[in-house]
């Protein structure tokens, strides 16, 4: 199907039909494999004040933390022992950690990981030269959602910031050779069906190697506290649309989906997703990284999360794969460059 046919199919097919087709495309490319990434939320300090986010700067009810370098390395070591080979270090836009400190952290993590591992960063927007330093220090991948493709909604969410700035940063990451991921929230206030289609089309235009989406969940300590929570089906349909538009990208079934529906992640896995990100942040910090309320797995250690996920994946007829799981889109692009 070409782009127009895919969008038309999305608009007219039942969720069952849409999911079936997306699952087929996913299996053609990734068989039934579900890659595992160990997620470490290493700081909740943030200089941004995004209207949707529970750890926004002006939420003074948040108890702020920064994991020490040793705590992070120890967490990676334990994850590695459990078989995890790819790690995602995520944080708020933490102005308290300068680029040198961050680079040293990346170097040390890289050493702990060894050659057969991959390191993803998700620390928000920086200058291209900072991204370049992080790449040089050993980061392989970068995740940064554009949140919505609608310029007006974006500006409202981010205190007037222009969407093009975020998109420029994503292009910088790609130019630097990062395996680049982005994505968006589904069901934001003022969003329409057309916004959701445009969101997915923008992912295709950016040729992303990873697309993470999740339902928007209103947080009581944010300006969007009274906004409505969309149904999980909206995220399921959007996942399927992304899989059809980007057959070779990696798509995680995110924690947010599991937080609004006990079987949310399974539903997303069956709609074309092929990645899970168990939260292996040390338990004592987990409750302070509350981007949205109702976040799951706050009392479990990373290892318990991994066991629970293995069980859940089996029920979808897929299987956990502890490989590095480079996106096929990235592999193909790299080959073209050689
Ligand atoms: N500072 C980093 C990481 C942001 S947190 C960055 O800017 O990229 C990761 C993601 O959580 C965000 O990109 C956003 O899409 C999601 N998120 C934040 N608040 C949310 C909410 N209330 N509901 C659902 N998802 C949310």
Can you describe this structure?
With 338 residues, the protein is α/β, with parallel strands linked by helices. The chain is built from 14 helices and 10 strands. Strands 2-3-4-5-6-7 form a 6-stranded parallel sheet. A 4-stranded parallel sheet has the order 8-9-1-10. The protein is globular. It starts with a helix and ends with a helix. It binds S-adenosyl-L-homocysteine. The site of S-adenosyl-L-homocysteine has 19 residues, from loops.
Strand content: 5-15%
Q: End-to-end distance, in Å?
A: 29 Å
User: How would you write the strand order of the largest sheet?
Assistant: 2-3-4-5-6-7
Uncertain residue segments: none
Q: How would a textbook summarize the main sheet?
A: 6 strands, parallel
Describe the structure concisely.
The chain is an alpha/beta fold.
List keywords for this structure.
338 residues; alpha/beta; six-stranded parallel beta sheet; four-stranded parallel beta sheet; 45% helix; 13% strand; binds S-adenosyl-L-homocysteine
Topology:
Elements: H1 3-12, H2 15-30, E1 33-36, E2 38-43, H3 69-81, E3 86-91, H4 99-113, E4 118-122, H5 128-137, E5 141-143, H6 151-157, H7 163-175, E6 179-186, H8 193-205, E7 210-215, H9 232-245, E8 252-253, H10 255-260, H11 264-269, E9 275-276, H12 283-286, H13 302-315, E10 319-321, H14 328-337
Parallel strand pairs: 1-9, 1-10, 2-3, 3-4, 4-5, 5-6, 6-7, 8-9
Helix pairs in contact: 1-9, 2-9, 3-4, 4-5, 8-9
The structure holds S-adenosyl-L-homocysteine (SAH).
């Amino acid at each position: 199907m070409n782009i127009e046919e895919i969008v038309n199919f999305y608009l007219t097919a039942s969720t069952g039909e849409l999911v079936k087709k997306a699952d087929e495309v996913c299996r053609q490319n990734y068989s039934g494999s579900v890659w595992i990434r160990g997620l470490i939320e290493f700081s909740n300090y943030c200089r941004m004040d995004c209207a949707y986010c529970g750890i926004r700067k002006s939420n003074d009810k948040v108890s702020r933390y920064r994991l020490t370098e040793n705590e992070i390395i120890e967490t990676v070591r334990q994850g590695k022992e459990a078989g995890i080979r790819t790690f995602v270090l995520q944080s708020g836009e933490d102005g308290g950690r300068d680029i040198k400190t961050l680079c040293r952290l990346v170097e040390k993590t890289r050493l702990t990981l060894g050659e057969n591992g991959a390191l993803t960063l998700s620390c928000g927007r920086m200058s291209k030269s900072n991204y370049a330093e992080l790449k040089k220090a050993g980061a392989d991948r970068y995740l940064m959602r554009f949140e919505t493709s609608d310029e007006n909604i974006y500006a409202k969410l981010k205190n007037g910031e222009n969407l093009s700035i975020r998109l420029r940063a994503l292009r910088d990451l790609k130019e630097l050779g990062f395996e680049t991921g982005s994505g968006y929230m589904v069901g934001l206030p003022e969003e329409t069906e057309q916004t959701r289609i445009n969101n997915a089309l923008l992912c295709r235009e950016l040729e992303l190697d990873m697309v993470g989406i999740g339902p928007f969940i209103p947080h009581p300590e944010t300006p969007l506290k009274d906004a409505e929570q969309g149904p999980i089906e909206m995220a399921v349909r959007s996942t399927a649309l992304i899989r059809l538009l980007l057959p070779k990208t990696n798509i995680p079934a995110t924690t947010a989906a599991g937080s609004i529906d006990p079987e949310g992640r399974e539903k997303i896995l069956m709609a074309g997703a092929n990645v899970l990100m168990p939260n292996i942040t040390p338990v004592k910090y987990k409750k302070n990284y509350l981007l949205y309320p109702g976040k799951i797995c706050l009392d479990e250690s990373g290892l318990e999360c991994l066991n629970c996920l293995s069980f859940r994946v089996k029920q979808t007829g897929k299987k956990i794969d502890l490989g590095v799981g480079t996106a096929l889109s990235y592999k193909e692009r790299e080959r073209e460059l050689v």
